[in-house]
Automatic annotation (TrEMBL):
Protein's organism: Salinimicrobium sediminis
Cofactor(s) of this protein: pyridoxal 5'-phosphate
Short name of one Pfam family: Aminotran_1_2
Recorded family membership: Belongs to the class-I pyridoxal-phosphate-dependent aminotransferase family.
InterPro entries linked to this entry: Aminotransferase_I/II_large, AspAT/PAT-like, NHTrfase_class1_PyrdxlP-BS, PyrdxlP-dep_Trfase, PyrdxlP-dep_Trfase_major, PyrdxlP-dep_Trfase_small
Name of protein: Aminotransferase
Length: 385
């Protein structure tokens, strides 16, 4: 199993900064906003109300009810308490699902680019990641034909995120329906729909695979508060799933971590019960930063860009630079290019290799406007040399 490249790059950035280097960190997918005050206040209240004991393994009932209400309100999805499990981040939700679902050798289809941890979590559960390549030309979307071609008798699951980390692509309802039409012919395949960027969507309505009646019983909907609520360090994620999968995740979690942090759970009740309008100011800022970074990046020759439709990443194809030597620095692949940007432009990014797309690199624009402007200026200068 390899180290998380996103976290490794974040650690390297911290290290270089500590050495006094003026690095602009566009590597980690982490909102630069503070957690909203109304959520912080709920956490302080929870401490004062002496929420300090172990919680139910699958989460406080009040939180599960808030999640059930959120699924209904935002997604039109009906889940009951037996179908919801709260975990220590969506990352644990995903790991739980992999561990309870996969037998050794079971295949999991991962449209590329996929989020960095999917392949490693699948491998940890002794499953086999099956990568389905997409590219800038196909707007990073897997087609129904590609899905059909990737299915074998060993296929157990399909995992994807929409809005996507790292490409920013968003599947429309029609596109999801076309994928579902393939899946209905293969009733043993379970879908993991990672919707953690749901609210950070610039093109329209968010669509969920579980909204299709003929798919509902086979979909695990993963979500969490890290991104839209600026709560990465609070570590709360959750699933809505068929009851038997939720029950198995509950059992797994009960032997590994127990219930998620009690204070964070109480705060998330308040976060999820609030209208989405309370966090709209952050989404609006991401939208204007998207325009800023795309406009500036478009001026840099050699970057092939697909305009991201959601999340807070841009994933340009930089293969134009492969085989070239820039200022004495030989660029063989995206990892070299990402290291070149770190060393010569002092801008941290993540290589596309980590996401199964070795022609690309990922920029997170969850950073201030000043940082984005300065980063693009530095990259332009470093390349013009
Ligand atoms: N899924 C995707 C697509 C992500 O980008 C992240 C970011 N960390 C996660 C899941 C995990 O989120 P967390 O564990 O912070 O809830
Ligand atoms: N999801 C974020 C990212 O992709 C956070 C880092 C991580 O959890 O890997 O950068």
């Amino acid at each position: 199993m390899s180290t998380s490249q996103t976290l490794a790059m974040a650690a390297k950035t911290r290290e270089l900064k500590a050495e006094g280097k003026d690095i602009i960190g566009l590597s980690l997918g982490e909102p630069d906003f503070n957690t909203p005050d109304f959520i912080k206040e709920a956490a302080i209240q929870a401490i004062n109300d002496n929420y300090n004991s172990y919680t139910p393994v699958d989460g406080y009932v009040e939180l599960k009810d808030a999640i059930i209400h959120k699924f209904k309100r935002d997604n039109g999805l009906t889940y009951d308490r037996s179908q919801v499990v709260v975990s220590t981040g969506a990352k644990q939700s995903l790991a739980n699902v992999a561990m309870v679902m996969l037998n050794p050798g079971d295949e999991v289809i991962l449209p590329c680019p996929y989020w960095v941890s999917y392949a490693e979590i699948v491998k940890l559960a002794e499953g086999v990641p099956v990568e389905v390549p997409t590219s800038v030309e196909s707007d990073f979307k897997m087609t129904p034909q590609q899905l059909e071609a990737a299915i074998t008798p060993k296929t157990r699951m399909l995992w994807y995120s929409s809005p996507s980390n790292p490409s920013g692509m968003v599947y429309s309802r029609d596109e999801l329906r076309a994928l579902a039409d393939v899946l209905v012919k293969h009733p043993d395949i379970i879908v993991v729909s990672d919707e953690i960027y749901e609210h950070i969507n610039f093109v329209g309505e968010h669509a969920s695979m579980a909204q299709f009646e003929d798919m509902y019983d086979r979909v695990v909907t993963v979500n969490g508060v890290s991104k839209a609520f600026a709560m990465t360090g609070w570590r709360i994620g959750y699933i809505g799933a068929p009851a038997e999968i939720a029950r198995a995740c509950n059992k797994m979690q009960g032997q590994i971590t127990s219930g998620a942090n009690c204070i964070a759970q109480r705060a998330v009740i308040t976060a999820l019960e609030a209208p989405v309008s309370k966090i709209q100011y952050m989404i609006d800022r991401f939208k204007s930063r998207r325009k800023l970074i795309i406009d500036l990046m478009s001026e840099i020759p050699g970057f092939a860009i697909t305009e991201p439709e959601g999340a807070f990443y841009v994933f340009p194809d930089v293969s134009y630079f492969f085989g070239k030597t820039i200022n004495g620095y030989e660029i063989k692949d995206a990892t070299d290019f990402s290291m070149f940007l770190l060393e010569k432009a002092l801008v941290a990014t993540v290589t596309g290799d980590a996401f199964g797309s070795p022609n690309c690199i990922r920029f997170s624009y969850a950073a201030s406007e000043t940082e984005i402007e300065e980063a693009m200026k530095r990259i332009k200068n470093a390349l013009s040399e």
